[in-house]
Amino acid sequence: MWGIFSGYSSFLLAFRCLVAITLIVILMRFTKSKLSAFLLTILIAGAVGNIIDSFVYGHVVDMLHFTFSGYSYGVFNLADAYISIGCLGLILLGFSKKESAQKV
Fold first, then answer.
1. Is 80 known to be catalytic?
2. Structural domain contains residue 69
3. pLDDT tens digits, one per residue of 54-91
């Protein structure tokens, strides 16, 4: 395992569960727009996928490795992709809301 906290798998599992529960509460209570709910759902799906990997395998399994012309372009799993897409979407959505609020 190459992760920065690879020696703390129990702590990471508990932290992942806490974050996933917090995100679910935010989704259920505070989310108003359909787009933010969709992006948050994608993020939660990725987090739950990593939690399942941690329970089943004891670590998160990376399953996609891309190489082109002899160069390695990263190893990741779909759960990581969902987390990245959800976070990036929520960040962009937050910036767009601030810009529209300043125009008024």
1. yes
2. yes
3. 888 877 777 777 888 888 877 778 898 999 999 999 99
